[in-house]
Amino acid sequence: MNRKELDPESSPVAAFGERLRRLRDERGWTQDDLAERMGYSGTHISAVETGRRSPTARFANTADKVFGTGDRLERQGRAARHTALLEGFPEYVAHEVRAAEIRIFELGIVPGLLQTPEYAAAITTGAVRRGAITEQQAEERLALLARRQAAIGRTPAPLVHAVLDESCLRRLVGGHRVMVAQLDHLAEFAELPTTVLQVAPYDLGERRAFDLPVNLLTLPDRSVIVYAESAQQGHLERDMRLVQPMLTAYHQLQAESLSQAASVAMINQLRKGSL
Questions:
Q1: Phi, psi dihedrals of residue 115, rounded to the nearest 5°
Q2: Closest by alpha carbon to 81, among 137, 139, 5?
Q3: CA neighbor of 105 nearest in space, from 241, 228, 245
């Protein structure tokens, strides 16, 4: 039987899942056994244990009653729910590390997978100063980002398509030095054999297909899932009736955007002093 290895250090959600599995194993229960005792499905238990689903307050309270752990799981679940990661994102990351193809559209900031450490640190520092996240949550974000970036360097590497709205290049983040290094990194990214980088220019206007960031993954079995988010909410979608229109829109966006050569030329122009 294949069991996914759990890393409780990766996030509060993963730590909760690892503890839930350990408590279940100590009692010799299967996931279906625990599901029956808690009033959930075995699939739900699996998703929580592997960090693909955050534990709700009701779930954690019920688990405390079943295991006789007082309020320990409820307190740990509260910490997991207060993580800096949006709902659906941990599950998206679990798929991203094994995806055959990754398609990204971003506006306003350079997407995480393409960020330099200094650029990423500037983004999280800004969020801490605004009170949007805590120092601990900032560290959590940066640690996860580093693992995601390392994962796309695996062998065989996934094919990564990235379309950046022009605003990603023109928004100064972290000061001139950090931004110049970030632009250099984007140009280097475009030279890799498994990447395609394009810029959606401002003059695309109403022809730009998306108004929010979008991530599409093609998995090893060739199925496609999409993850989209706003400032406060993320959503992972698998239903092909909803995924297919998003995939079509992404292809239309690529067709309307600058070629990779023209995109790199814009990046180099900004790098040389127009920024």
A1: -80, 145
A2: 137
A3: 228
The pTM (predicted TM-score) of the whole model is 0.70
Residue 17 belongs to domain spanning:
12-81
Q: How many helices (H) and strands (E) does the chain have?
A: 12, 6
CATH code of the domain covering residue 183: 3.30.870.10
Give the Cα separation of 29 and 8 in Å (integer). Answer: 21
For 218-246, b/e burial (b = at least 16 CB within 10 A) is beeeeebbbbbbeeeebebbeeeeebeeb
Q: Examine residue 73 and state whether it is found in any structural domain, yes or no.
A: yes
Q: Give pLDDT tens digits for 3-54.
A: 777 777 666 778 889 999 999 999 999 999 999 999 999 999 998 998 878 7
Q: What is the DSSP letter of 272?
A: I
182 close to 170: Cβ distance less than 8 angstroms:
no
What span, in angstroms and rounded, lies between the C-alpha atoms of 88 and 237?
9
Spatial separation of the C-alpha atoms in residues 114 and 212, rounded to whole Å? 18
Each residue's pLDDT tens digit, 59-95: 999 999 999 999 889 888 876 665 555 566 777 888 8
**Per this entry, what is the length of the chain?**
275
Task: Report how far residue 227's alpha carbon sits from residue 106's, in angstroms, rounded to the nearest whole number.
Answer: 12
